């Protein structure tokens, strides 16, 4: 009987710890052209619909892309968030929103090193609570080079006989330049020893990097994924996107973990919030061409 009581006590303690363990929900969302640019033609009804999806997302931390400022972010997220935004003079800024009621203290640093050519800067945010910290780098990498090789020899061989080809060639060259400071940030964080994550719109199909067996100088995933403390993982490599009917099944938005952050990942918590509306170009412009993705961490 005494043994049975002891086993029951241990079981109840385990269930209690499991039930009341605190979690942090972290998301990434490219809310296309959310700012003063002429491409933003949203109505009041569109902002209300985006706010409804933000409520449904219900994330504690959101890496935001293509959002001009905190003022524009509040149209969607309301007042219960603290915002950190890059300062480059361009409406497509990168930001991080932290829910005030989460109780996390946040410190933000603009990562200007990602600003290569016409590329966007990153936002480096450290979250701390009860003596525990996690560091995040929110990014919006150069668009237009989704799976092509990034080494200089391959880029030099890319055609440039029209504007579309010229853009793709320039995009690959700029993404290749961005890969250097991106990897440098990862190397520095691995030495630092604090759990870290990278999240945002990478404009890169990592599943294609892997399928094409790119080398370290050819693929963005291969460039940043090293060994030991620099070994990375993301659930998007083995998942298919259902956004807007799964038109683009390979993710370009990613949430990436180092081994220490991966140890805190709540199994099967990765989600994509898919819009309910039927796709049309107008509807996707009024909401976004990207659906938000999220994960949970057990703290």
Query: Which blocks of ≥5 consecutive residues have pLDDT under 50?
Result: 1-20
Supply Rg. Answer: 20 Å
When the domains are counted, the total is: 1
Helix content: 25-40%
CATH class categorisation? Alpha Beta
Write the layout of secondary structure elements.
Blueprint: H1 2-20, E1 23-34, H2 44-57, E2 61-67, H3 70-77, E3 81-85, E4 94-99, E5 105-111, E6 122-129, E7 132-140, H4 152-157, H5 163-192, E8 196-201, H6 206-211, H7 220-224, E9 253-257, H8 259-262, E10 271-272, H9 281-286, E11 293-298
Describe the structure in your own words.
With 299 residues, this protein is of the alpha+beta class. The protein has one domain (22-298): Endonuclease/exonuclease/phosphatase (Deoxyribonuclease I, Chain A, 4-Layer Sandwich). Helices cover 33% and strands 24% of the residues. A six-stranded mixed β-sheet has the order 3-4-2-1-11-10, with helices on one face. It has a five-stranded mixed β-sheet with strand order 5-6-7-8-9. The longest helix has 30 residues, at 163-192. It starts with a helix and ends with a strand. The model is unreliable at 1-20 (pLDDT under 50).
Give the key terms.
alpha+beta; Deoxyribonuclease I, Chain A; six-stranded mixed sheet; five-stranded mixed sheet; 11 strands; 33% helix; disordered N terminus
Structure at a glance:
The chain is of the alpha+beta class and about 300 residues long. It has a single domain (about 20-299), classed as Deoxyribonuclease I, Chain A. The two termini are about 35 Å apart.
């Amino acid at each position: 009987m005494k043994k049975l009581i002891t086993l029951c006590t241990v079981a109840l303690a385990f269930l209690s710890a499991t039930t009341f363990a605190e979690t942090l929900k972290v998301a990434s969302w490219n809310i296309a052209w959310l700012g003063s640019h002429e491409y933003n033609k949203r109505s009041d009804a569109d902002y209300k619909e985006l706010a409804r999806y933000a409520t449904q997302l219900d994330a504690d931390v959101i890496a935001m892309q293509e959002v001009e400022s905190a003022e524009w972010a509040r149209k969607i997220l309301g007042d219960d968030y603290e915002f950190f935004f890059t300062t480059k003079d361009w409406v497509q800024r990168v930001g991080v929103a932290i829910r005030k009621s989460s109780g996390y203290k946040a410190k933000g640093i603009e990562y200007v090193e990602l600003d290569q050519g016409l590329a966007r800067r990153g936002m480096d945010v450290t979250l701390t609570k009860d003596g525990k910290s996690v560091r995040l780098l929110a990014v919006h990498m150069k668009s237009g080079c989704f799976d092509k090789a990034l080494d200089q020899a391959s880029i030099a061989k890319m055609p440039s006989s029209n504007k579309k080809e010229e853009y793709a060639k320039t995009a690959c060259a700029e993404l290749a330049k961005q890969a250097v400071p991106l990897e440098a940030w990862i190397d520095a964080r691995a030495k630092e020893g604090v759990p870290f994550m990278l999240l945002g719109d990478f404009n890169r199909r990592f599943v294609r990097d892997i399928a094409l067996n790119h080398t370290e100088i050819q693929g963005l995933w291969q460039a940043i994924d090293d060994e030991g403390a620099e070994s990375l993982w993301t659930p998007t490599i083995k998942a298919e996107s259902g956004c807007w009917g799964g038109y683009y099944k390979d993710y370009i938005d990613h949430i990436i973990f180092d081994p220490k952050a991966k140890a805190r990942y709540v199994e099967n918590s990765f989600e994509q919030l898919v819009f309910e509306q039927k796709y049309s170009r107008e509807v996707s412009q009024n909401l976004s061409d990207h659906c938000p993705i999220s994960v949970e961490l057990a703290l």
